Automatic annotation (TrEMBL):
Keyword Nucleotide-binding attached: yes
Protein name listed in UniProt: ABC transporter ATP-binding protein
SUPFAM superfamilies named among the record's database cross-references: P-loop containing nucleoside triphosphate hydrolases
UniProt domain ABC transporter: residue ranges: 6-242
CDD domains on file: ABC_Mj1267_LivG_branched
Lineage: Bacteria, Bacillati, Vulcanimicrobiota, Vulcanimicrobiia, Vulcanimicrobiales
Species for this entry: Vulcanimicrobium alpinum
PROSITE patterns found in the cross-reference section: ABC_TRANSPORTER_2 (PS50893)
Length: 242
């Protein structure tokens, strides 16, 4: 039996004349932390949006637990069990931290929470995992950048996803916040959530990911164990230049 939980097949995304993602196959294994790396403009965020169901491919298919979800609306994909955070965090600034996460609990949830009480429970559970339970009543705008990123993670987690996709959650964080976020991601994974992380910080992915896929100019150039991918000549050249 295949242990692939989320799979993109021959995914291509064009923006006018630009091919941002070209014929990429990516298979996310149940329980893993898969890293998606590549230099700026390589197509990481676009591939991320395609497999998260946020953006529709020009060609190719996306399947979740063997079911085709390519043309399902983004909201259905969340309900099915795939949740994503975004590179740019956009909390509802005037709403409380708890209310922000309750939006996640209502928006996509399996099984759907019955009423405010259940949504509040799911939200508090996610906040506890993300170390934000004591900030539940604060307005979102009062959080540090690190706190806002964890809030974004909590919001996605409150949908109880099977696969959590994270786009550059470490960007802009100081070393302490980075370490704390890496611990948080490991803890979420250990609780049984499969994780796909787009990351620019190669040192971080080396220690975190079980497997890495490297993109260069919209194409997958190599995938495998972190040490091997990060030492691959095509990856080194893409990051450092020839
Ligand atoms: P990465 O996340 O690896 O930096 P992106 O997926 O954001 O790369 O972008 C890949 C390429 O697609 C870039 O050349 C970018 O300018 C282009 N691109 C991304 N999103 C859009 C869009 N919505 N419209 C037009 N071009 C886009
Ligand atoms: Mg990006």
């Amino acid at each position: 039996m295949s242990d692939v939980v989320l799979e993109g097949t021959a995914l291509t995304k064009r923006f006018g004349g630009l091919v941002a993602v070209s014929e990429v196959h990516v298979a996310v294994q149940r329980g893993e932390i898969l890293g998606l790396i590549g230099p700026n403009g390589a197509g990481k965020s676009t591939l991320f949006r395609l497999i998260a169901g946020i953006m529709k491919p020009t060609a190719g298919r996306v399947a979740f637990r063997g079911r085709d979800i390519t043309n399902r609306p983004a909201h259905d994909v969340v309900v099915a069990g795939v949740a994503a955070t975004h590179q740019i965090v956009r909390p509802f600034r005037e709403m409380s931290v708890l209310e922000n996460v309750m939006v996640g609990a209502f928006f996509g949830h399996r099984p759907r929470p019955r009423g405010v009480h259940r949504a509040r429970e799911a939200a508090m559970e996610a906040l506890t995992v993300c170390d934000l339970a004591d900030r539940a009543a604060s307005p979102a705008r009062a959080l540090t950048l690190g706190g806002q990123k964890w809030l974004e993670v909590a919001r996605a987690l409150a949908t109880r996803p099977e696969v959590l996709l994270l786009d550059e959650v470490l960007a802009g964080l100081n070393p302490t916040e980075t370490d704390r976020t890496l611990e948080l991601i490991r803890a979420i994974n250990e609780r049984g959530t499969t994780i796909v992380i787009v990351e620019h910080n190669l040192r971080a992915v080396r220690g975190l990911c079980s497997r890495i896929v490297a993109l260069v100019q919209g194409r997958k150039v190599v995938e495998g164990a972190p040490e091997a991918v990060l030492a691959d000549e095509r990856v080194v050249t893409a990051y450092l230049g020839p």
